[in-house]
Write a structure and sequence with these properties.
This protein is globular. It has 2 domains: about 130 residues, Rossmann fold (3-Layer(aba) Sandwich); about 170 residues, Glycogen Phosphorylase B (Rossmann fold, 3-Layer(aba) Sandwich). The protein starts with a strand and ends with a helix. The chain is built from 13 helices and 11 strands. The longest helix has 13 residues. The strands form 2 sheets. The protein has a 6-stranded parallel sheet, with helices on both faces. A 5-stranded parallel sheet has the order 3-2-1-4-5, sandwiched between helices. β4, α4 and β5 form a beta-alpha-beta unit. α3 packs across α4 and α8 crosses α13. The chain is of the alpha/beta class and about 325 residues long.
Length: about 325
């Protein structure tokens, strides 16, 4: 029996995209112990996952040397570095076991951004790249999407929360207007127009996101119920699970929605499919513009390098509403 550490400290989407690998490992090696190592804030993404023996969380302010001490006590036989960061590199030095990792394709990514030279070749989603770290375990992707397992208490709280706002007895559309970087955000006026279109289509509207997104959602008007910063990660997942459709940019919310099986309309601007983060094996529609300036960054920036932000500005609300209608039909 093996004891395997799976290390991915951040972020929401990256953690959820490891779950096809976790599922494959457990199915292929049911007697192995599988420990997931991540930040405490992201532990709810995997703590209910039945394929994981336990989550080992890096606590706020905890030194990596102290986390390593706790991991050594598990006597791991293998370590899968699914992050490739300085922090995970430190763990590889401090926890002596058989470590393996995967390729981030950094050179190909840089070539595509800087010179628009596509060296990626065959498209490999990030969820499948993680399997490179598990070559020794003889596992392959099963063609199924990521999984975000929810606690019943999260579902119960969301049912009550939505009920208090009159959203339990009508079709629900969830939107995620926020993003960590400005160039990944669809224009606010577009969100307003889309919200009106979705309301006309008979949907109740709820906006999800983190605390920083709450003021942004407030600007969409009272027709949109503001859940940003009010629900936990588990509760946000439960809210997305109850929605008929989710409209999101290239953010963690998109992967949370695919993890609970909800249809997604994803708006991609500065990033492209070659990077590996399109909705994975999900009921999803990606709306994007084929422009010579795409991609312009790996994770988005604070301003468009050319000043026009056409990659998202040119995606009009009527087009997104039509994509919702087609996807849900």
């Amino acid at each position: 029996m093996s004891c395997v550490l799976c290390v991915r400290f951040s972020s929401i989407g990256d953690v959820l995209l490891t779950t096809p690998l976790l599922r494959a490992l457990k199915h292929r090696h049911p007697d192995d112990e599988l420990y997931f190592v991540t930040k405490r804030a992201l532990a709810p993404l995997v703590e209910n996952n039945p394929h994981v023996t336990a989550v080992v969380a890096l606590e706020p302010g905890e030194r990596i040397i102290d986390l390593a001490r706790r991991l050594r006590a598990l006597r791991p036989t293998h370590g899968l570095d699914l992050h490739g960061s300085l922090r995970s590199a430190a763990l590889r030095l401090l926890v002596r076991t058989r470590w393996s990792s995967y390729s981030k394709r950094k050179f190909a990514r840089t070539a595509l951004i800087a010179a628009k030279l596509d060296l990626y070749g065959k498209r490999f989603p990030v969820a499948e790249r993680y399997f490179e770290a598990a070559r020794a375990f003889d596992v392959t992707p099963d063609g199924e999407p990521p999984e975000f397992f929810l606690a019943e208490r999260a579902r119960a709280r969301v049912i009550a929360w939505l009920g208090e706002r009159g959203l339990n007895n009508r079709p629900l559309a969830a939107i995620a207007p926020g993003a960590a970087h400005a160039t990944k955000r669809w224009p606010l006026d577009h969100w307003r127009m889309l919200a009106e279109r979705l309301r006309q289509m008979g949907y109740g509207l709820v906006a999800v996101g983190g605390p920083d997104d709450r003021p942004l959602v407030t600007e969409l008007g009272t027709a949109v119920v503001n859940a940003a910063g009010e629900l936990t990660l588990q509760e946000t997942g439960a809210c997305l699970e109850r929605a008929a459709v989710v409209v999101s940019g290239d953010t963690g919310v998109m992967h949370m929605a695919t993890g609970v099986g909800t249809r997604v309309v994803a708006l991609f601007g500065p990033t492209v499919e070659a990077f590996g983060f399109f909705p994975y094996r999900a009921r999803a529609t990606v709306v994007q513009r084929q422009l010579a300036c795409r991609p312009c960054s790996a994770m988005g920036t604070e301003r468009c390098p050319l000043g026009h932000h056409r990659c998202l500005v040119d995606i009009v609300p009527d087009e997104v509403a039509a994509a919702v209608q087609t996807l849900v039909a």
